[in-house]
């Protein structure tokens, strides 16, 4: 398990290819939210961002998306700083799915997914055959073809999240950023959603709360604590009993499944700042 302000060396790839954050910080009102974090997701991998509430996961995702600018450090896309690239060019490459995305507009599922084609179209231009093909493919990939004409707000929570992922897929991105997409979903829809995300041919960074789901689906993990990287590596390397106790203040028993060696965490109880079990 590696610790510090950056991810472990095995996390790296060609610095001029893909999305990369190098020692980024973000300060708000004198408070350090993200503190010197470096992230280089391997192409095609599923990278999980873990950490307690307030650890900086959502802020780091917004930095990677270019929605927020780092106070120091740099986020690059194929070696170019994000702040030097047009927003439309970024949107053609990076798609973002926020937790509990909502809209008050009376849009159908198909219309929501078509929003993903906006970065590829000129202003006031008509929808092209390529746009419609991308929308059809995204609906099919997410199992929503039969819901294309249904109003988005009538969908279940899991279906709404799938529709948002379909919208992101219609962008035809190479990088996908998701912020707690399983929040408020039941376990079946959590599994369905993460199975879909894991099957996508893109580089994905996903913020999650559930450590067992992260261990099941992610190729690499980054654990944040108070804005810094507490650990980075494979699930087996990162998810240890010491790490869970140190970062989450929870005692755990961790075993590893035989076929793949992925960890399974059984929580035994919390512990106070003194290290004594909570009763």
TrEMBL record:
Keyword hit for Nucleotide-binding: yes
Keywords per UniProt: ATP-binding, Nucleotide-binding
A single GO molecular function term of this UniProt record: ATP binding
Pfam families in the cross-refs: ABC_tran
SUPFAM superfamilies, sorted: P-loop containing nucleoside triphosphate hydrolases
Domain ABC transporter: 19-251
Record carries keyword ATP-binding: yes
Protein name per UniProt: ABC transporter ATP-binding protein
UniProt lineage: Bacteria, Bacillati, Actinomycetota, Actinomycetes, Kitasatosporales
């Amino acid at each position: 398990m590696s610790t510090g302000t950056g991810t472990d060396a095995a996390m790296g790839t060609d610095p001029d290819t893909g999305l990369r954050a190098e020692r980024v910080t973000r300060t708000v009102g004198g408070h350090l939210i993200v503190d010197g974090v470096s992230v280089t997701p391997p192409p095609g991998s599923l990278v999980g961002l873990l950490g307690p509430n307030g650890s900086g996961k959502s802020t780091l995702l917004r930095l990677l998306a270019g929605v927020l600018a780092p106070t120091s450090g740099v986020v690059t896309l194929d070696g170019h700083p994000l702040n030097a690239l047009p927003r439309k060019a970024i949107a053609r490459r990076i798609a973002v799915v926020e937790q509990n995305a909502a809209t008050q507009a009376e849009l159908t599922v198909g219309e929501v997914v078509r929003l993903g084609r906006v970065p590829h179209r000129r202003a006031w231009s008509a929808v092209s055959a390529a746009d419609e093909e991308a929308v059809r493919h995204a609906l099919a990939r997410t199992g929503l073809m039969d819901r294309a004409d249904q109003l988005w707000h009538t969908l279940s929570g899991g279906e709404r999240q799938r529709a948002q992922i379909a919208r992101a897929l219609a962008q035809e991105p190479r990088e996908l950023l998701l912020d707690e997409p399983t929040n408020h979903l039941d376990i079946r829809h959590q599994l369905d959603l993460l199975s879909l995300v894991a099957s996508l041919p893109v580089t994905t960074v996903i913020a999650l709360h559930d450590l067992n789901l992260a261990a099941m689906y992610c190729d690499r993990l980054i654990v944040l604590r108070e804005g810094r990287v507490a650990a980075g590596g494979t699930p087996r390397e990162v998810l240890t009993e010491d790490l869970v106790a140190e970062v989450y203040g929870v005692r755990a028993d961790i075993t590893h499944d035989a076929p793949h060696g992925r960890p399974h965490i059984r929580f035994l109880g919390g512990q106070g700042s003194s290290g004594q079990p909570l009763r």
